[in-house]
Amino acid sequence: MSVRYFQAEPDRMPEEVFEEHHVLLNLNPNPHRVQNWRDDELRDFTFLMDEIVVTPAGMRSGWRWHDKSDVIVITLDPAKVAQFAQSELGMLLDPQQFRDLPQFSDPDLCAAGVILRDALEADDMSSAVMFEAMSRVFLVKLLQKYGKRRTNEVELSARFTSRHYQRVLSYVQNRLDQTITVDQLAAEVGMSQSHFARVFKETLGSTPMQYVMAYRIEQAIKMMEDAERPLGDIALACGFADQAHFTRSFKQAVGQTPRAYRAAKPA
Fold this sequence. Notes:
Elements: E1 2-8, E2 11-17, E3 21-26, E4 32-38, E5 41-47, E6 51-55, E7 60-65, E8 69-76, H1 78-89, E9 103-105, H2 107-122, H3 125-146, H4 151-156, H5 162-174, H6 182-188, H7 193-204, H8 208-223, H9 231-237, H10 243-254, H11 258-264
Antiparallel strand pairs: 1-8, 2-7, 3-6, 3-8, 4-5, 4-7, 6-9
Helix pairs in contact: 1-3, 2-3, 6-7, 9-10
């Protein structure tokens, strides 16, 4: 995130295309005329205090303001915004983020922008901490109120459905030999970690990690049907750290060690 503060006499900015999202916060208390070109479409409007204009990455945009400007411009890297939304808020954002949101009024978001500007201008250790904290606050406010989720995620987010389960199952199947965390599974279905863990257990009767462990054991049992396959190889293929970890987990779940279980099976 970068933050810039502009006060400028009436002027014009030529049309350009940027790789970042631009969020423009109007601090001027005097209503004034502004023209904004968005992909060759002209918007001619009266700009009011605490109004915000968002120009998404990849959109051709140009400006002309007819009175002195007093604005904060915040630029956001789309990839980092998407990652923040996924990891911190459990949101999977629509690729066309902010394209349908040219202008809105939000005094609360503008106030957060002013705090960001002031922290940046102070340039001391405490202000650096404040800037980092308020950057997170600003992003959370922006995304929770105006972030556009992928359409299918909006449809799935109310509760844990069979489609959620299929996504979790596919994720576990494709990464069976790897470490799998609750965070990863929650992100896969577009939920926060706490919400995902709660609705998963309510629906399936076990925690996500209990489910993953049970699936690992289930697949290990299937692999053990091949009497020639080493237990160490099966352990790694099913995501256990080593054969000792596999043995402990298997005995806890099945009641006997993998070696004893295999020996007890009829040839």
